[in-house]
Write a structure and sequence with these properties.
Elements lengths: L2 H4 E3 L15 E5 L4 E7 L4 E6 L4 E6 L3 E6 L5 E6 L5 E5 L4 E5 L5 E5 L1 E2 L2 E2 L6 E3 L5 E4 L21 E6 L6 E8 L2 E6 L5 E6 L11 E8 L3 E10 L8 E3 L5 E5 L2 E5 L5 E6 L4 E7 L5 E6 L2 E6 L9
Antiparallel strand pairs: 1-24, 2-27, 3-4, 4-5, 5-6, 7-8, 8-9, 9-10, 11-12, 13-14, 14-15, 15-16, 17-18, 18-19, 19-20, 21-22, 22-23, 23-24, 25-26, 26-27
Length: 304
């Protein structure tokens, strides 16, 4: 894809974030719905989910793609905690899990207020170790990305899990379908996507921003940005506070003030993305059947 067809510049600031002669590389194809990319710098590898195919895949610069885990319990979003352990949202088991260094799996959360979770979707970890995740109903709508079931929760919540105490708290409950989420670099703002327009054209297709209070609560929810093509799914934030969101036509980049800076046009509908590579300046993009990568001048804020 040439530079002329790869980028849409909506604000001059976008030009400083992209590399004109960088090309969009297709690293792998053959997924049914690629999701949940997470970079492991210490292992020089990327893990990502292929939800309907019940597998998690591993990409390595030299070795290409191999199967990391199968069956995966219809795993969706992935991240790492501050100890570097893999944290995964599983649609099939409707739970949030952590993979220990020896490979054993610890269940962090599978119920709230005595009822099963809907289908944990995406997850991030704050610097204090708390785990934040969204719980829409995508994994129980059909047997394609999980197991069809009626929701037991009265709302599609966003949760905060405290691994020290085991406490699970609902921090937001007014979403139609909460999806991707990301903290600002200083962790005072939490961005959460509402992707309900995926099944209802009149429903939200926007990213909301919340003030994080005492590292535990959310206040002052407001619409940060709307997606004009498709829906916002997964997103990541760079060190300057720009928000990079998935969309139907590629990756949309928003300034901290919510202005659309530009787009990276991808030939398949994008589900999620993450920064990786030795300098965290390579954007890995999971898009429908494929894994893509593109070098940018931005640096991902997420650690480790």
């Amino acid at each position: 894809m040439s530079h002329d067809t790869l980028y849409e510049v909506h604000d001059p600031r976008f030009r400083s974030l992209i590399i004109k002669n960088a090309r969009l590389e297709q690293l792998y194809t053959g997924c049914r719905w690629a999701e949940g990319p997470v970079w492991f710098a210490d292992a020089n590898q990327l893990l990502f989910s292929d939800i309907p195919n019940q597998r998690m895949l591993r990409w390595e610069p030299e070795g290409g793609v191999s199967v990391f885990r199968a069956p995966s319990n219809f795993a969706n979003g992935n991240t790492r905690d501050r100890e570097g352990r893999l944290v995964t949202c599983e649609h099939g088991t409707r739970r949030l899990t952590r993979t220990e260094p020896d490979g054993t799996i610890t269940v962090l959360a599978d119920s709230f207020a005595g009822k099963r979770l809907n289908s944990p979707n995406d997850v991030i970890v704050r610097s204090d170790g708390s785990v934040w995740f969204t719980d829409p109903t995508y994994g129980i709508l059909s047997d394609y990305e999980g197991y069809k079931a009626e929701p037991e929760q009265g709302a599609r919540n966003v949760y905060r899990f405290d691994p020290e105490t085991g406490e699970l708290a609902a921090v937001a409950g007014d979403f139609r379908q909460p999806n991707g989420l990301a903290f600002s670099p200083n962790e005072t703002t939490l961005y959460i996507a509402d992707s309900a327009a995926s099944h209802d054209e009149t429903a939200p297709r926007h990213i909301r921003a919340f003030d994080v209070v005492d590292g535990k609560a959310l206040e002052n929810g407001r619409v940060f940005a709307s997606i004009d093509k498709g829906i916002p799914d997964g997103m990541r934030v760079d060190t300057e506070g720009n928000v990079w969101s998935s969309a139907a036509d590629g990756v949309h980049c928003f300034a901290p003030d919510g202005r659309l800076l530009g787009k990276i046009l991808v030939p398949e509908t994008v589900a999620n993305l993450t920064f990786g590579g030795p300098r965290r300046n390579r954007l890995f993009i999971t898009a429908t059947t494929s894994l893509y990568a593109l070098y940018v001048t931005a640096t991902g804020a997420q650690r480790p």
